[in-house]
Design a protein that fits this description.
Elements lengths: L1 H7 L22 E7 L4 E6 L14 E7 L4 H11 L3 H8 L6 E4 L4 E10 L6 E10 L3 E6 L7 H9 L9 H36 L3 H21 L2 H10 L7 H66 L15 H22 L4
Parallel strand pairs: 3-7
Antiparallel strand pairs: 1-2, 1-3, 4-5, 5-6, 6-7
Helix pairs in contact: 2-3, 5-6, 5-8, 6-8, 7-8, 8-9
Length: 354
């Protein structure tokens, strides 16, 4: 949180629309990929300069421009000037700490989302801001790093399967959003398995290591909730917007995505409740183990109380004790001690105390 506030401090005092990159630089060089297609044609290439994207603006085909890396504000500014993107939108693109949002500017729609996917170790979830701008015949996506969840969309465009090539930019934008939402389910399935694993360990091993695991899970759930919760508002606004850029048949797919967002939010809320309850499980398990230890110690102490009394009597140095002169005195005392201990064990067993 403190790091977040320090980064946000960079914008203090600047005029609205001033482009300042806020966030981590996750790629050294910006990579720009262009995919241009329609029902009969398809072209995909990586461009070296941003001005190579400009001729696609006036083409009747659908163009998808993907920018990996948002730290170079010069590239963002040139691309925004070509497509007439408002400076406020460009400011939101280079600020990777933005809350997910949707803005309708008439001739284009801006959407900011959080994309979740696994890192290279498959044990760490990466959270990345993805900004989408789509108009009548173009979609521009901005990502912080190379690597995303859009490969299925690219494959459908390359192979020409389904209705992807026959549909417009609105369907392409929907497909990208749907891929991001589908990625949430993969992450949440993995997170649910981790929560179940920690829960099972807590019952038998309420250790300090498991307590640390609970706190890590709690931090992850809070972070994921912050990234996912605004998604419902974004999709709802996109579903309700009255824009000629979104065709009627695309709204059906958006409603399906909205249903998925509700399911995701319910899942993350249930995860939050489970993690919160895991602290109670930890304390209860710890208390149960402590009670077991105390019960064993209490039984041992209870058994030895009468034994200590018996041997304490015969440990006194009185001269006139009739039993001291008995030949079988020692075996008799030991037999009494043994009988007392066994009797008490039998009694405790019948009472189901042990």
């Amino acid at each position: 949180m403190l790091g977040f506030m320090k980064k946000m401090h960079v914008q203090a005092g600047l005029a609205p629309g001033t482009l300042v990159h806020i966030g981590d630089k996750k790629v050294e060089k910006v990579r720009i990929t262009v995919i241009d297609f329609d029902g009969e044609s398809f072209q995909e290439k990586v461009v070296d300069r941003v001005d190579e994207c400009f001729p696609y603006k006036d083409k009747p085909t659908t163009t998808w421009i993907n920018v990996d890396g948002v730290h170079d504000v010069g590239i963002i500014e040139k691309l925004g000037a070509c497509y007439g993107i408002h400076p406020i939108v460009l400011e939101d693109i280079v600020n990777t700490m933005q809350r997910p949002k949707m803005l309708d500017f008439g001739d284009y729609i801006f959407i900011s989302l959080k994309m979740l996917y696994f890192g290279d170790d498959k044990e760490r979830v990466k959270v990345e801001q993805v900004s989408l701008i789509f108009g009548a015949n173009f979609v521009i996506s901005f990502q912080e790093d190379i690597g995303d969840v859009f490969d299925p969309v690219r494959e459908r465009i390359r192979k020409g399967t389904g209705k992807m090539r026959r549909s417009g930019a609105d369907y392409l934008a929907y497909s990208l959003i749907d891929s991001i939402v589908d990625g949430y389910f993969v992450i949440f399935e993995w997170l649910g398995e981790r929560i179940e694993e920690v829960q099972e360990r807590l019952i038998v091993e309420p250790t300090a290591g498991n307590l640390q695991a609970i706190h890590r899970l709690k931090s992850e759930v809070i972070g994921l909730r912050k990234a996912v919760w605004p998604l419902r508002e974004v999709i709802a606004n996109l579903e309700r917007v009255e824009s000629p850029l979104i065709r009627k048949d695309t709204f059906i797919f958006l409603r399906n995505v909205y249903g998925h967002t509700i399911e995701i939010i319910e899942t993350i809320e249930s995860f939050r409740d489970l993690v919160a309850g895991m602290i109670d499980i930890y304390l209860s398990s710890l208390s149960m183990k402590l009670n077991e230890v105390m019960k064993v110690l209490t039984i041992i102490a209870t058994i030895f109380i009468p034994l200590t009394f018996i041997v304490g009597i015969y440990g006194m140095n009185f001269k006139h004790m009739p039993e001291l002169s008995w030949r079988v005195g020692y075996p008799a005392v030991m037999l009494v001690v043994l009988a007392a201990g066994v009797s008490m064990l039998v009694y405790f067993r019948r009472k189901k105390w042990i």
